[in-house]
Amino acid sequence: MMKKAVVCGAGGFIGGHLVAKLKREGYWVRGVDIKEHEFRTLEADEFRLLDLRSPENCWEALSMGGEVPDEVYQLAADMGGMGFIHTAECDIMHNSALINVHMIDVAAKLGVPRYFFSSSACVYPDMKPGDPMMTEDQAIPANPDNEYGWEKLYAERMAQAYGRHYPIEIRVARFQNCYGPYGTWRGGREKAPAAICRKVAMAEPGGVVEVWGDGKAVRGFTYVDDLVDGIYLLTQSDLQKSANIGADEYVTVNDLVQTVIDVSGKDVRIEHVDGPVGVLARNFSKARMNELGWEARISLREGIEQTYPWIAEQVRESYGA
Ligand code: NAD
């Protein structure tokens, strides 16, 4: 029998890639989102436009006549990069919390056997460059740097609580920064790799690329194909605890920008300007995912070689740059 999956947030960046992955794995897939995908034709067997902040719409998203989906992947969130996270705190806490509160309740009560929740590395406290690696358990005692992280932590705990009281297997991944083609690249919700690709693509020859802060913050960037492989493997596994999914390659923001400039082949230089930077450093253990046989395979350079041309093309189509 073909397994059935529902991907909530299928109209978004990672959700769109996850639908494609599940189709490759032979699933029947229903995508759900409040909007259509902006950049690709979804490969889902069915797509429902629903606002998942209401319990009625969560029921509609998961109901299949007399059947229930074998797996639910909950990626819908009011979401953006560092600029958005710091300005839209109320929207994030209100909208994403409502989606998560209702979705897990409906999934558990409908009898969905397996539920994946997309959490974030933002649940962790800030780190300094050179600090030892943090394990998943070190998210507690909690002190996330932003409200987005607090909402994710609450949603994780809520899903785990349902897992203790209902026959539903909960899988939780904490994603590091993810990037790749078919993601938001302008408008204020884009994340750093997409924003940098756009700025480099739009820069005049001999011009500058503005970078928020001093560019010394340390980050891991995970290519989307690696991430969706990790989501799938984790969801099939027996691992009930939250697991970090991210690349082991850590770079400074300046390194990221230089990689994009190198891939573009353009003659542009970095200029640092004021702007929200977020935490100083990230360095997480991937031991739980490694034990399942997963590790990121795509280097930052290889991932940017896939991502930059797509964003440069979007820029050309939109601005003729
Ligand atoms: P995205 O914004 O591209 O996708 C999220 C989707 O959720 C969007 O398509 C949006 O329309 C949908 N959505 C928002 N409100 C909704 C509502 N009320 N009803 C139905 N759908 C709604 O973001 P993404 O980068 O694909 O992220 C997917 C998930 O992964 C999110 O939960 C995000 O918090 C998490 N995450 C992403 C990253 C990253 O680097 N991209 C890092 C950590 C965690």
Structure description:
The chain folds into two domains: 4-176 and 223-245, Rossmann fold; 179-220 and 249-282 and 297-319, UDP-galactose 4-epimerase, domain 1, CATH 3.90.25. Helix content is 40%, strand content 17%. The chain is built from ten helices and 13 strands. Strand 1 (4-8), helix 1 (13-24) and strand 2 (28-33) form a beta-alpha-beta unit. The radius of gyration is 19 Å and the shape is globular. It starts with a strand and ends with a helix. Bound molecules: nicotinamide-adenine-dinucleotide. Nicotinamide-adenine-dinucleotide (NAD) is lined by residues 9, 11-15, 33-35, 51-53, 75-79, 95, 99, 118, 120, 175, 177-178, 184, 191.
Question: Which features does this protein show?
Answer:
single chain, 321 residues, alpha/beta, Rossmann fold, UDP-galactose 4-epimerase, domain 1, 13 strands, binds nicotinamide-adenine-dinucleotide
Strand content: 15-25%
Biggest sheet strand order reads 3-2-1-4-5-6-11
**Fraction in helix:** 25-40%
Fourth-tier CATH superfamily name of the largest domain: NAD(P)-binding Rossmann-like Domain
Unreliable spans: none
SSE class = alpha/beta
Q: Give me the CATH fold name of the largest domain.
A: Rossmann fold
Mean pLDDT across all residues, rounded?
95
Number of strands: 13
User: What's the main sheet like?
Assistant: 7 strands, parallel
Shape: globular
Order of helices and strands: EHEEHEHHEHEEHEEEHEEHEHH
Main CATH class of the largest domain: Alpha Beta
**What is the alpha-carbon Rg in Å?**
19 Å
CATH architecture of the largest domain, by name, is 3-Layer(aba) Sandwich
What is the rounded distance between the termini? 50 Å
